[in-house]
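User: Please fill in residues for this 164-position structure.
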């Protein structure tokens, strides 16, 4: 288990303990959605969906027979967006909330290899002033020199933490 996975697992466990082991609080996970471009397969899926916390994973797989180098503008390799169903404008864009000018990230993928990236968000920050409800969630990556890759993962019910 990598340090990143261990950290995500620790955060997930802490959130589960905060919410309690109430199965009603858990939302169904989405299925992986994918897009193939330039011999690269991009896919994204929910890793954890709770009413108050979401973890998303995106993976890039090199489908070619030669190494492929990807460059991202900053450490925010994968980001989330939330849309009201049927509305074309994002209600939440993680880039606007978390990413600042930063060092670029370079990834070299040997043939057949996959690299995964993870992001998470507290629903409280996602909703802002928006109402609670069901939202369409997407993950997106911004490879330098290529068009943005946005993958719609599925719907999640977003609710605020109850105040004591």
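Assistant: Residues filled in for all 164 positions:
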């Amino acid at each position: 288990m990598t340090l990143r996975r261990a950290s995500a697992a620790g955060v997930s466990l802490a959130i589960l303990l905060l919410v309690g082991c109430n199965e009603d609080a858990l939302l169904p996970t989405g299925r992986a959605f994918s897009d193939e471009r330039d011999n690269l397969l991009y896919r994204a899926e929910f890793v954890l969906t709770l009413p108050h916390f979401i973890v998303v994973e995106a993976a890039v797989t090199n489908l070619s027979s030669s190494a492929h180098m990807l460059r991202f503008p900053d450490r925010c390799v994968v980001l989330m967006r939330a849309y009201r169903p049927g509305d074309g404008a994002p209600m939440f864009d993680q880039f606007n909330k978390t990413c600042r000018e930063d060092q670029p990230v370079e990834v070299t993928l040997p043939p057949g290899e996959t690299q995964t990236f993870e992001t998470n968000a507290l629903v409280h920050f996602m909703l802002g002033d928006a109402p609670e409800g069901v939202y369409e969630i997407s993950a997106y990556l911004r490879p330098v020199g290529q068009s943005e890759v946005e993958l719609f993962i599925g719907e999640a019910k977003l609710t605020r933490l109850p105040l004591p």
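For context: The first strand starts at residue 33 and ends at 37.
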